[in-house]
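idk why but the lab printer keeps eating my pages so im just putting this in chat instead. protein + 4'-deoxy-4'-aminopyridoxal-5'-phosphate:
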Amino acid sequence: MIRDNEYARLIRFFPSRGIKIVRAQGQYVWDIDGKRYLDYHTGNGAAFLGHSNPVIVEMIIEQASKVMTCPPIFDSQVLDDCLAMLGKILPRRLKNVYFLNSGSEAVELALKLARKRTGRRRFASFTGAFHGRTMGALAMTHNPKYRAGYDPFPWEHIFLPFNDVSSLDKIDESFAAVIIEPVQGEGGLSVANKEFMKALADRCRNMGSILIIDEVQTGFGRTGRLWSHEEYDIDPDIMVAGKSIGGGFPVSIVAVNDEIASRVEEAEHGSTHGGNPLALAAVIGGTKVLLRDNVPLKSAEKGNHLANGLSEIAKTYPSIVRGVKGKGLMIGLDIRFNPAEIIRLLQTRGLLALKAGSTVLRFLPPYLITEEDIDWSIRVIDEAVRLYCEHTGKRG
Ligand code: PMP
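predcted complex ->
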């Protein structure tokens, strides 16, 4: 029976941020009262190429008017075009790709492939890691709050201390795979150091364990490289990416080496919406923007500018701010307390930000922010931290 005037209720795993967004364009969003916000939240980083990037919007609209549903068992022009674009940007040894809808789903497939290819059962990830909320990805995710009440998890699993080379000898020949983020996104913006990443890659190679690099948050230029792991001169077996690759449209990819791809079995995996033509059009558009605007370079330059401003704030308020963390346009302030109140102060002043770990104030700006945007945001962040000092009676 249809009932008028009855609303469904959203299940809120997180409370509302208290503003109703009615428009979003480029680096800005507007609420229902017409107030403009500079967006350093970007939908958890998904709108890194700017809200409603015109190149991507045009691709999606054009595709929607042609074919909107077409699973990849049928050939299509948009699939050919998308593979041609990805061929330009995927790491040299990771040119085999499968399309899914979310980061978690991409991680699940990566784990499944590693389990079956190696015939091994054990997995390792790191303290502070975030790889998603579906059961396999959650098994790799460290935050006890997210894990509580869901064990037993489907994979045998250990957490190793992040950036601790000496613990890597725990990875032995019983491990199917190790999964790592080059910069930990949700966990607090810790950056993997070079020695550690190199030692991890060597250890995986020596033990025959698959190395999965999770670039869901770091990838597509955000940290100042096309793929963040390029910085380390390593050769992972699998890479997963999501968030920004579709310019805000839900799409993720799993990219694997020839060895793994050559042993894929029929019917081993599948997804109704994975490889949807609109998602593929969005990836084509996203890649065009990435190449046209040299997004990695812009992230590096603008990230430096932002980091300099944030360092000044850290120096001004040492008893509130421990320091600057992150890389490129995945950057933040390590606050000595829960940053929730500062995030609220920023929002009232027209800047949207988010949290990482329990103490990091995280900024995920789109690559097209201007120098003026950055300078303005630094002033606003400075003011919010100062007000926080005054409110709480904490000394700068
Ligand atoms: N891996 C990493 C590194 C992430 O940051 C995220 C999302 N924050 C995920 C996986 C999961 O992605 P999704 O929310 O799209 O499932």
